[in-house]
Description:
Layout: E1 13-15, E2 20-22, H1 31-41, H2 43-51, H3 53-56, H4 58-81, H5 87-112, H6 116-140, E3 143-144, H7 148-166, H8 173-222
Parallel strand pairs: 1-3
Antiparallel strand pairs: 1-2
Helix pairs in contact: 1-4, 1-5, 2-4, 2-5, 4-5, 4-7, 5-6, 5-7, 6-8, 7-8
Amino acid sequence: xxxxxxxxxxxxxxxxxxxxxxxxxxxxxxxxxxxxxxxxxxxxxxxxxxxxxxxxxxxxxxxxxxxxxxxxxxxxxxxxxxxxxxxxxxxxxxxxxxxxxxxxxxxxxxxxxxxxxxxxxxxxxxxxxxxxxxxxxxxxxxxxxxxxxxxxxxxxxxxxxxxxxxxxxxxxxxxxxxxxxxxxxxxxxxxxxxxxxxxxxxxxxxxxxxxxxxxxxxxxxxxxxxxxxxxxxxx
Length: 235
């Protein structure tokens, strides 16, 4: 349990890129969280569908991919609209995004010439975020909410996946041409957003740990309870 936390305090405060705030107890069985779980479960079927695109046709494959990608927006809207934002959801939703996007991008890189530089940047960022976030969560009991740049990168990567599915379809030549024309711009935008989001998360994490260590030293020097950053009212 983080130093300075009260027994009756919310179990998992959430640190956003801008300022920290607290949410209630962990609850997994909510509709938005179940949609995140569904997104995780659709990784395998989506990859199989992409492998069989020539046999099944583009539209059924695209529909499955769009449903999986679109569930990200739907679960967020439901969580906010129904007042069902939970600590579990704030961890599960971005994890589902990372696993789904990472799995599909790896397949496209291996089988369809998707840019390896972009895939490497996405995977490196996500591994660093998950590892660093897990360490901070274990030590201080806080998790990071997605930044604006992170959300933009997810949107651009989703659009890029759709474009990559369409770009080689002989049955939809006009859409294929549009997808091929848009792909380089989406690649550049996605890479920029991934790098910006990584820098933002790293800066936020370093600042948080620095503040937490100062709080630890102040508590040790004074012998009184000093709440770590992320506890109590945001400043």
